[in-house]
Design goal:
This protein is mainly alpha-helical. It has 14 helices and five strands. The strands form two sheets. A three-stranded antiparallel beta sheet has the order 1-2-5. Helix 4 runs antiparallel to helix 5.
């Protein structure tokens, strides 16, 4: 299984915290459906766990058991009939343009462009701090997102975005492009666009504590995560009239359905527009009422009779026209329906 370093670290942490203490000493074949249900109930009743903890722990348990079935270690998974709780999405937090400007003013000058690029470009934190100078084209106002950096257990890992759709070109508004230009003028770099004060790679956990937390407090927008800049960008795009497909492309989502699922409540409704269109269709029908079935049949029969009379008239006219010829002795031409060239004077046919 090819897992990203951050995903592997998270899964191992869940395994050690929530699965091994309960199932670590049991054989796989000894784990029953009742055991799994009891475990889920105990986790759900625990205090201090994030809403997503229990569903994620259940997902890892289910994957382990499914893998055991696929490799022949188990005949059936005890998780198949267990209903795991779903991850409840929390209300998204996003800023207004005025709040974005206030946050950019509050944060350290070195990271002012981070706020504008995140809020208007929608880049993830790892994409922001993994962005290299040669990925920028400020003249054309776009940025190529091709790599990211994540910190796992104190180690930095560099690699491409987590999905193919994540590798993308993001067009930038002037406000973001100008902020990047000012940043590179104040803090020149030939490698990463954003660096730590000592010129190294930004370590997100330390950066949050040193720069982000004081800034959101000063700007009076707390609580607000750096990932919420991404939500802010999507809200901005929607307000600017971007289509779900364009939003998916800018954000690096794999499909439009992801956009509709996560941000559909922000998209403008079309109920009134659809209702107005239906009313217009109905109004046309009232202005031009439809005929009854009897009237329609009478009209259809009348049209058929008229068509037959017109056809017969055309046929008689064509027959008369075709048999018309100059006066002469060739009487056979009048009686023959298969027209032939008329004989001329002095030819053999006239003798």
């Amino acid at each position: 299984m090819d897992l990203r370093p951050s995903t592997l670290a998270r899964d191992l942490d869940y395994l050690n915290r929530y699965l091994i203490p309960t199932f670590g000493e049991l054989e796989l074949s000894d784990i029953t459906v009742s055991d799994v249900r009891t475990w889920i109930a105990e986790l759900s009743g625990s205090l201090g766990l994030a809403p997503s903890t229990v569903p994620k722990a259940g997902q890892i348990m289910s994957k382990i058991m499914r893998s055991a079935v696929e490799t022949g270690l188990l005949k059936a998974s005890p998780c198949t009939t267990v209903r795991f709780p779903r991850i409840e999405r929390t209300e998204m937090r996003f800023l207004s343009p005025a709040e974005v400007a206030r946050l950019a003013e509050a944060i350290h000058l070195r990271y002012r462009a981070v706020v504008f690029l995140g809020a208007y470009g929608g880049l993830r934190a790892g994409e922001l701090f993994g962005l290299r100078v040669d990925r920028l084209d400020l003249a054309s106002r776009h940025v190529d997102v091709l790599e990211q950096v994540v910190e796992v257990s104190g180690y930095l890992h560099f690699g491409p975005p987590k999905t193919r759709a994540g590798r993308r070109r993001v067009p930038l508004p002037k406000v973001a492009a100008d902020a990047l230009a000012a940043h590179l003028k104040a803090f020149p770099s030939t490698d990463f666009v954003f660096t730590s004060p000592d010129g190294g790679t930004v370590r997100l956990n330390a950066w949050r504590q040193r720069f982000w937390a004081p800034a959101i407090k000063k700007a009076e927008v707390a609580p607000f995560r750096i990932h919420d800049l991404r939500h802010t960008a999507v809200a901005m795009w929607i307000a600017a009239g971007a289509s779900p497909r364009e939003i998916a492309s800018r954000a690096g989502h794999s499909s439009v359905s992801v956009v509709l699922d996560r941000y559909g409540h922000l998209l403008p409704g079309t109920e009134e527009r659809v209702n107005d269109a239906l009313d217009r269709l109905a109004a046309v029908a009232v202005e031009k009422p439809t005929t009854t079935s009897g009237e329609a049949e009478h009209t259809r029969s009348h049209r058929i009779r008229r068509a037959r009379i017109a056809h017969a008239h055309r046929h008689d006219h064509q027959a008369t026209t075709k048999n018309t010829h100059p006066p002469g002795n060739s009487e056979w031409a009048l009686e023959d329906s298969n027209l032939r060239p008329q004989p001329c004077e002095g030819c053999a046919l006239t003798n």
